[in-house]
Each structure stands twice: as C-alpha cells, then as structure tokens.
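re: ur question from yesterday

yeah so i grabbed the chain u mentioned. its 158 aa long if i counted rite. heres the sequnce exactly as i have it in my notes:
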Amino acid sequence: MPLFNICDLRAALRAHQRLLGLDPGKKTIGIALSDVGLMLASPHMGLKRGKLSVVAAEISRIARAQDVGGLVVGLPLSLDGSFGPAAQAARDWTLNLSDMTGLPAAMWDERLSSSAVNRFLISEADMTRQRRGEVVDQMAAAYILQAALDASIPQEQV
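ran it thru and got these structure tokens back, copy pasting raw so excuse formatting
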C-alpha cells in the first residue's frame, strides 16, 4: 500500500474513525490514538518491538477495537532535514506494516520529538528516569500524531 500525504489520509477516513500514531523506537513502539473528531492525540500504550508480524497483529487488534482508519508513523529525518538511512528504514517498515495491517499510512517528521517529551517530563512533571522510560515512547507518538492532526485540519474548519 503506498504512503499517503497526511491531508489525503485524513480525508479518506470514514466519519468518526481515529488515527493511530506510532513512534517506532529501538526497544519500544509508542502508540497514540486520536479522538474521533481528529482534534486531540492521546498516549495509548507502549508495545515491545519485535517481529513485524507480531507487531502488525497487535496493531490490527487495536485498530479493530478503536475503529482506526489509518496510521501516522514517525519519520526520523536527519537534523538538517535530509532523508538518511534511518528514514529509509522507517519508510520500509511503515510500508510493510501498512501492507500487513491493511491500514493506509502517512509519515510525519519526528525530529526531536523524544527530546521535547523528555524535557517536558523533567521540567513540568518532575518524573524519575525510570518512569520517563516507561512513558516517553507513547508520549512521543502522541506528540507526532498531534502535530500531524494540527497540520491537516481541513481549511473549512480553520
């Protein structure tokens, strides 16, 4: 399944379908869900990174339970905005995940999302390192998904 532009993905959803945000980290995949109005992203859970078939099955289960119509996956561009090996690997992973789940996908720039979330958790929430490690991936997924939602609001709603 080809990758979508975020505006096209949003437009292709049925009424009241959600988007699922993913931040594929090295050990954990952060998962976030939008509300049915596509206005707010919320952290949902962290999923241990493993075989893609197992990950796809769990994401499919969540998608069915939450009426998810598409995926928004973090795209790890280089700091200068270039498309390097990490971005290519993420793109390939996303295309395979989209094919295995049957869900259309878009990718969204995730540069510094984990850093921004960590800074927030330290300064505003005063979380310990261990607790931050438990929630940072899912909060980063929500950060990525929220940015994509904000950027794709249809003009008639602005």
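noticed a couple things. DSSP finds five helices and six strands in the chain. also The beta strands are 3-4, 18-24, 28-34, 41-48, 68-75, 105-109.
anyway ttyl
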